[in-house]
Structures are given as structure tokens and as C-alpha cells.
Amino acid sequence: MLFRSESTRQKAIERRRNLCKRIAELAHEGMGTHPAFALLRAAVPADASFITRTHLLDENTCKELDRLVMRAAELLTGVEEWSPIKKAWAALPVSAGGLGINSMEIVAPCAYVAAWRQGIACITNQTGVLNLPELLLTSHVLEQPMTQAIERGRRMGIEMRANAGGAEDRTAKESQGQWTSAANWLRREQVLEQLGPEESAILRGAGGKGAGAWLEAHDGGDVERMWLTDAEFSAAMAIRMGLTMKVEAGCLHKTAAGMRCNQNLAQGNRWHPLLCTHGPGHNARHTNVAKALAKCIQKEMETAVQLEQAVPGWDRQGLDGQLERARLDIVTHGWDGRTRYIDRSEEHTSVLQSQFRISYAVFCLK
Question: Residue 306: which H helix or E strand, with range?
Fold first, then answer.
């Protein structure tokens, strides 16, 4: 039958949409992206298995079903949005360097012809009517959809035959597997033609026996120890398909209380982490510069030097009414009997090509 029923078409699309949504929820609830992706690969062929064998899915329906599963895979991967060529790459078998996400554009016509091929052979054997295949294939029920399916196969570069022609013992699964494999390897050559030298090398290197064994891992037993963490899985997928991983756009420095800075590092703020006041780096940097300055003063002026000294005369009252104690970085006691207080600060300036300007305020108290 030709798959024309709009209600049945919508049901097939809605079934896949719900499947992808549920797997995304499981990953979010703690299942992990790696097991969720393995579940997606295993569940997707099953959700349309019966329909693909009994009805010829039209090309628009196949494209929508592929779009849904590719979007789900993108979200689980957690890297850049895939381009059309990367989606074609992902649809390749694992042994061919892809992710093993079967494309319905390839599977649908192959499954339909293979199912009817086996069915016609079985009916012919049971009835003994030798010209039954010809009668069925020219009937108004099968002629049009079968012709369309075979033509779609030719556009993919494969030749499918609905009449078993002496191969009655071949099952629908075997016929479908042979045709889809041939179509996928031809698709791989088309993908390689559109990739640059570096990405072509990545795709060729990702194929072969056992190259994608970590993608084939399934739940149960010792295999559970093979699951990658979400971060590891994202990195592995990016490496396998030459994808660009997302980069944190906010400052990761944290205070002792665990508060994260999150300052946006885009738009010229890339130097912010060097001056960020969150975390121990700010104080450590300040202290190290003060110690270096004190060492120079002590050596050159041959005078006693103290660090981080309280100066009660400069205490002040804060906005909250509390007394703020004044502490200056360096205190020197000169040979002339005078005490000098030195405080230093550092700040970023775009005027000096993102160098640091260090200002020293020297206060002499009598």
C-alpha cells in the first residue's frame, strides 16, 4: 500500500517525537547521555518497523522522522548544531565511521521492497501459482508503490528487485540489510566528496571493525562500566565527527562560599579572569606583587620592611555603620626616622594593549 493516510502519517511522526522527548527526559533525569544515546539508536528502528514494511513512507515523512531523531542526537551530544553534511555523516553505519543512526530515506524503500519480496515468495510457494509474482506486482495495490520504492533505490545507486527470482530463501531482513548496506556505503562516498582533507581523514579513521565499539555498548553486566560521563561522551562525539565543542562563555572563578563569578568573557572581556576578584587567585596575585616590591625596597634602601600592617589613623566608618580597619601593603622605616606606608593596586587598561598598570600610592606620616 502507498502510505498516504494523513492521520497515520501524523501518528508515526508523533510516535517518534514522543520517543525522542522521553529519551531526552531520561538523560536529564540522571540516566546519562551515553546510555540515552545507545537507547535512542536501539529504539528508533523499532518505532517504525511495522509501518516501513507494510506501507511505503513518502519522502517528506522520512525527512521529518530523520529530522526528529537527528535533533535528539544533537541535544544528547551537547556540541554544535550539525550541518546537513554532518547529519549525513551521523546516519552512516558505525563500521563506516558514522553514528549508526539509520536514515529513513534509505531504510523505508529497502524495507518495503524486502518485505514484499519475501511475502510474494512465500505465497508463491504455498499456492504453487508460478505467475503469481507477476500478477501481484502488476496489481493496482502494489504496482505504484513498488515502482516508486524501486525508483527511490535507483536514485540512491542500488538496484532492488521485488521478484525473488530464485532467491526465495532470502529473508526480508537479509535483503533489507544488503540493500541498506550498499546504499550507506555509496552515501559515505558522497559525504567524503563534500568534506575537506582533515574531516575526510577523520571519517576514514573512524570506520573499520571495532572502531566504534563504545557506541555499541548496551546496558547490563560489566558493560555498564564502559559508559562515559556526559563530558567524556560529548568530547568523544566531537572527536569522532570533527565537531566544534562548546566553550564556557562565563568566568569560572569561585569564592570560598562557592559563588561563581559568571562574568561574560565575550566582547573583549577575555582578560577578565586575570583580574577577577573571585577565588584565591586575586589575593595571591596581590600578595605576590607586594612581596616582590617589598624585597626590592629592602634591598635598595637597606631598611626594615613590614607587610600588611594596620594603620588605625586611616580607619573609617562604612556605609553599614561598621568600622573598616585600614591595612596597607608595605610599611618601611627609613634611616631618617620617617615611616612610609605603601599600598598598591592593579587594573586592566586597554590603552596599553591589555598590559597591567601598577599604581603605587606612597603616603608619608610624620
Answer: strand 304-310
pTM recorded for the entire structure: 0.61
What are the C-alpha distances in Å from 220 to residues 44, 50, 213, 226, 286?
A: 20, 27, 15, 11, 54
pLDDT in tens, 141-164: 677 787 888 888 889 888 887 665
Cβ neighbours of residue 219 closer than 8 Å, sequence gap 6 or more? 35, 38
Q: Confidence band (pLDDT; 50, 70, 90) for 134?
A: low
In 3D, which of 122, 233, 113, 133 has the Cα closest to residue 175?
A: 113
Q: At residue 238, what are phi and psi to the nearest 5 degrees?
A: -65, -40
Provide the CA 318 distance to its chain's centre, in angstroms: 49
Beta bridge partners of 361: 343
* DSSP of 317-331: E-TTSPEEPPEEEEE
The whole-angstrom separation of Cα 366 and Cα 361 is: 16
Dist CA 363 CA 331 (whole Å): 10
Q: Model confidence over 288-322: pLDDT tens digits?
A: 878 888 888 778 777 778 887 777 777 777 777 77
